[in-house]
Amino acid sequence: MKPATSPKTYRVKSFGCQMNVYDGERMAEMLAEQGIAPAPEGEDADLVVLNTCHIREKAAEKVYSDIGRISKAGREAGKTPMIAVAGCVAQAEGEEIMARAPAVSMVVGPQAYHRMPSMIEKAARGERATDTDMPADAKFAALPQRRKSAPSAFLTIQEGCDKFCTYCVVPYTRGAEISRPFSALVDEAKKLVEAGAREITLLGQNVSAWTGEDDKGRTLGMAGLIRALAEDPDLKRIRYTTSHPADMDDDLIATHGEVEKLMPYLHLPVQSGSDRVLKAMNRSHTAESYLKLLDRFRAARPDLALSGDFIVGFPGETEAEFEETLSLVDAVGYAAAFSFKYSPRPGTPAATMDAQVAPEVMDERLQRLQASLNRDQHAFNKASEGKTCEVLVERRGKLEGQWLGKSPWLQSVFFDGADAGGIAIGDIVTAKLAQAGPNSIRGELVANAAA
Ligand code: SAH
Ligand code: SF4
Ligand code: F3S
């Protein structure tokens, strides 16, 4: 199927992790630079980019149903939309997509999307194209400069992963670890702040493995980068995600105590509380080494909120091993967490391991784990009732005069600003955390500006 003409409008739909959100924004900026406009809300686009995620089977399968839906909507409207499949499914299953889905004009991997413009030209001539070349370094230099930003922005500093956890596709879809150069990052951060960012979240699959050289040729780790970025007076908050327990050094721990702009929140996936399972996962940490590491972070920053990722039902996981995960959760007291049923991924070592766990056992374990995690999240939010803190205002709420933002501990806070006047998106206000609900906190405005 040949899309009739060069596309005039685009829509980028991103699935999966924050890095895909970042990539999706950069694709949108690049398409805009080509003179293609974002499709108005509610209207079909001439070019649809599906920026996909391959992490679990459900996420990956979504792409095929989406392709079907988009082509059907196109047929009904008498048009043939150009469909591009980008992201991690494109990287992992490019050939299969081309064979299974004739409506797709191009398949473009996460490290090749800067070459999408020439692929679009080809597609307009009826030629299909696949580009899944690695590695990542080239794309950043080829992308247009940042000109737009929400108050909270993402910035990819590191990409790829060398850890090869036995369940995970990321080392195959994103490739080997690379660090973007220090000067490029300082420059992009500056542009984002000029465009309205007040908070920057540094992104990487293994973000704390970032390393670079500053302008004096000194070798830096991520802690050094954070200190350098914190010097910009208009940048108010810094966060980072996601790190691996093996790459957290003393300097980073110290930075949490010293750099006020580094928010008191740490997302540090543990996956399991059983040392046997952790070893089978190829996670290089034990439950005990993880807990000790958290103690060191908490010593540096006592009000640190913790978050984690968990997998239940990894092959061979016994009831007793699962209970060790519950004990670890009890020991940590997470403020937030993400938990998943193990999903066998093609090409990963765990997919062919013996003793795959039955789906109903996984369901039951996930429910029990989530009950504990929800309990702790609620307790964390309850414990913050009465605190006064800064809130970065990110958008308007549903009700007249209502605003939504984030506390330093990444809690969603809504508050009524109707009587205050003069509040704008991107402001940092002072609010009292008045009442904690299951997913957000009702705040009361104390002052229009940060204290
Ligand atoms: N270190 C990564 C993790 C990416 S994947 C990062 O930087 O974000 C995010 C989470 O998905 C992992 O921490 C893990 O908990 C989960 N996950 C990864 N592969 C999975 C699989 N095959 N089945 C279920 N969950 C998985
Ligand atoms: Fe995947 Fe493990 Fe790398 Fe995270 S650290 S991206 S879970 S292989
Ligand atoms: Fe998914 Fe790729 Fe991110 S597999 S989680 S989009 S790195």
From TrEMBL:
Residues involved in [4Fe-4S] cluster 1 binding: C17, C53, C88
Top-level class of the enzyme under EC nomenclature: transferase
Location of the MTTase N-terminal domain: 8-125
Subcellular location(s) per record: Cytoplasm
EC number of this enzyme: 2.8.4.3
Gene3D superfamilies: Methylthiotransferase, N-terminal domain, tm_1862 like domain
Reactions the enzyme catalyzes: N(6)-dimethylallyladenosine(37) in tRNA + (sulfur carrier)-SH + AH2 + 2 S-adenosyl-L-methionine = 2-methylsulfanyl-N(6)-dimethylallyladenosine(37) in tRNA + (sulfur carrier)-H + 5'-deoxyadenosine + L-methionine + A + S-adenosyl-L-homocysteine + 2 H(+)
Radical SAM core domain sequence ranges: 147-379
PROSITE patterns per UniProt: MTTASE_N (PS51449), MTTASE_RADICAL (PS01278), RADICAL_SAM (PS51918), TRAM (PS50926)
Domain called TRAM: residue spans: 382-447
Signal peptide range in chain numbering: none
GO (cellular component) term, any one: cytosol
GO molecular function: 4 iron, 4 sulfur cluster binding; metal ion binding; tRNA-2-methylthio-N(6)-dimethylallyladenosine(37) synthase activity
Keyword list, A-Z: 4Fe-4S, Cytoplasm, Iron, Iron-sulfur, Metal-binding, S-adenosyl-L-methionine, Transferase, tRNA processing
Superkingdom of origin: Bacteria
InterPro entries: Elp3/MiaA/NifB-like_rSAM, Methylthiotransferase, Methylthiotransferase_CS, Methylthiotransferase_N, Methylthiotransferase_N_sf, MiaB_methiolase, rSAM, rSAM_horseshoe
Record note on quaternary structure: Monomer.
UniProt xrefs under PANTHER family: CDK5 REGULATORY SUBUNIT-ASSOCIATED PROTEIN 1, MITOCHONDRIAL TRNA METHYLTHIOTRANSFERASE CDK5RAP1
Similarity annotation: Belongs to the methylthiotransferase family. MiaB subfamily.
Protein's recorded name: tRNA-2-methylthio-N(6)-dimethylallyladenosine synthase
